[in-house]
């Protein structure tokens, strides 16, 4: 039986999301005959963690669904066992990269990848706690429908399964390793208020995320489309396309990847930095590996915490760190695009060594570019006043550290790519639910 991992990383209260994603797991098992492992990676505060345990305990049994709810103690125990088995000299540092004290979108997904390997899964399907499913005639619209219908199959065999194909015939014999869609609703990044306050400042700030050298028309279009997902039009009928999927058309709350990719290369483990977890989407496209883009978009919304003063500053810092990370990531993405098919070995698998070399090279870029980015960001935020001026002062006070961290994050990523093969290999024989003390057991319906 095909085994897959539907994962929900969270650090906030989301009992309703747990119940909804469990419904999606049951749908996948029922409609596709898969064994779906629902993996909840919980970094929440104690009260929220307790509520999540209650939500998991209340889930109705579903044939073919296995639920794993792992708090950070259990995640840490699993990682330590994997690291010990791998016998790596940098084990302590790697544990910090895999389970840091701060928020890391890449690290939580990397843990899901390793746990999926331990569970013997062929793919990882990621959802987020601050999103929900669309409804059609009162029924949820589950993205796993397209993911299970296409992932792991030869692209040439998908005729009749997808609505259309825009794939180069030269890629037809390759395996589909990505299926994804986007979101509708609020912008995925908290910049809508900037656009409302001053559209020119918005264009200048968001323009910092566009790679240098793009023609002005392209730059304008990219700025206009940035962080908007699929807009606001609700789902009415399925549309799926076999193609080389553009990373700008997929959101990480609505994506599935085959182990042919994540078993070879991890995500950047940068902390407090949005956007870095999209790395594998760029890699898949650059290596010309087939994917399916569909329209079962998830509904995005912003939590109350993100609207608070503390939440606002924390998120703006993550946005600033993303803008600095793009200087390094764009260099890597350009290198990946230039490498193209040569990123694949004779068996058609991604070569980690080539990726690590490009990531390591990116640590040598001139920091002057990020100095200039921070100049623009600080000036623009000060012009907006209020909380934005406070954020500008925060950036100014951490200026040297922010620039240094952007470089150090890429060095850490290169280190993780170097050892990832050893980690995935030793994850395979590692127990997922080994007790670490008095805990509710995972639910196995």
Fold and architecture overview:
- The chain is an alpha/beta fold and 445 residues long.
- 48% of the residues lie in helices and 13% in strands.
- It has 17 helices and 14 strands.
- It has a 9-stranded mixed β-sheet, with helices on both faces. It has a 3-stranded mixed β-sheet with strand order 5-14-10, with no helix packed on it. Strands 6-7 form a two-stranded antiparallel ribbon.
- It starts with a strand and ends in an 18-residue tail after the last helix.
- The C terminus is likely disordered.
SSE blueprint and pairings:
Layout: E1 3-10, H1 15-32, E2 35-42, H2 46-57, E3 65-71, H3 72-86, H4 91-98, H5 105-119, E4 123-126, E5 131-132, E6 135-136, E7 139-140, H6 144-150, E8 164-165, E9 178-180, E10 183-185, H7 192-197, H8 199-206, H9 216-225, E11 240-243, E12 255-258, H10 259-262, H11 279-286, E13 291-294, E14 298-300, H12 304-307, H13 309-339, H14 352-362, H15 368-384, H16 386-397, H17 399-427
Parallel strand pairs: 1-2, 1-4, 2-3, 8-11, 9-13, 10-14
Antiparallel strand pairs: 4-12, 5-14, 6-7, 9-12, 11-13
Helix pairs in contact: 1-2, 1-6, 3-4, 3-17, 5-17, 11-13, 13-14, 13-15, 13-16, 13-17, 14-17, 15-16
């Amino acid at each position: 039986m095909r085994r897959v991992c539907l994962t929900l990383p969270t650090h906030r209260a989301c009992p309703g999301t747990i119940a909804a994603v469990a419904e999606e797991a049951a749908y996948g098992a029922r409609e596709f005959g898969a064994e779906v492992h629902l993996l909840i990676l919980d970094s929440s505060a104690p009260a929220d963690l307790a509520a999540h345990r209650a939500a998991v305990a209340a889930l109705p049994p579903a044939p073919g669904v296995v639920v794993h709810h792992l708090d950070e103690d259990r995640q840490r125990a699993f990682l330590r066992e994997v690291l010990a088995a791998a016998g790596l000299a940098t084990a302590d540092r790697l544990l910090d990269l895999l389970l840091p004290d701060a928020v890391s979108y890449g690290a939580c997904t990397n843990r899901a990848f390793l746990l999926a390997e331990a569970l013997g899964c062929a793919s990882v399907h990621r959802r987020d706690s601050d999103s929900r499913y669309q409804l059609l005639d009162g029924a949820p619209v589950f993205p796993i429908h397209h993911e299970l219908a296409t992932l792991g199959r030869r692209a040439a065999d998908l005729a009749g399964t997808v609505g259309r194909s825009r794939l180069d015939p030269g890629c037809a014999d390759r395996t589909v390793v990505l299926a994804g869609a986007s979101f509708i609703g609020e912008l995925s990044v908290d910049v809508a208020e900037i656009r409302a306050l001053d559209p020119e400042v918005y264009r200048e700030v968001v323009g910092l995320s566009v790679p240098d050298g793009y023609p002005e028309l392209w730059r304008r279009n990219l700025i206009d489309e940035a962080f908007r997902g699929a807009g606001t039009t609700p789902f009415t009928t399925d549309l799926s396309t076999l193609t080389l999927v553009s990373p700008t058309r997929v959101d990480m709350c609505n994506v599935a990847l085959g182990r042919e990719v994540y078993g070879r290369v991890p995500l950047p483990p940068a902390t407090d930095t949005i956007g870095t977890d999209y790395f594998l989407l760029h890699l898949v496209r650059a290596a010309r590996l087939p994917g399916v883009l569909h329209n079962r978009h998830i509904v995005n919304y912003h939590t109350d915490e993100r609207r608070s003063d503390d939440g606002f500053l924390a998120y703006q810092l993550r946005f600033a760190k993303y803008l600095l990370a793009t200087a390094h990531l764009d260099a890597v993405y350009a290198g990946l695009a230039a490498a193209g098919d040569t990123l694949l070995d004779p068996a058609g698998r991604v070569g980690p060594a080539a990726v690590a070399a490009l990531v390591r090279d990116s640590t040598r870029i001139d920091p002057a570019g990020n100095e200039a980015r921070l100049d623009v960001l600080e000036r623009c935020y000060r012009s907006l006043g209020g909380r934005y001026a406070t954020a500008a002062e925060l950036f100014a006070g951490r200026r040297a550290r922010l620039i240094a961290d952007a470089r150090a994050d890429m060095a850490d990523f290169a280190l993780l790519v170097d050892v990832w093969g050893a980690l995935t290999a030793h994850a395979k024989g590692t127990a997922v639910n080994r007790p670490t003390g008095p805990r509710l057991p995972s639910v196995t319906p």
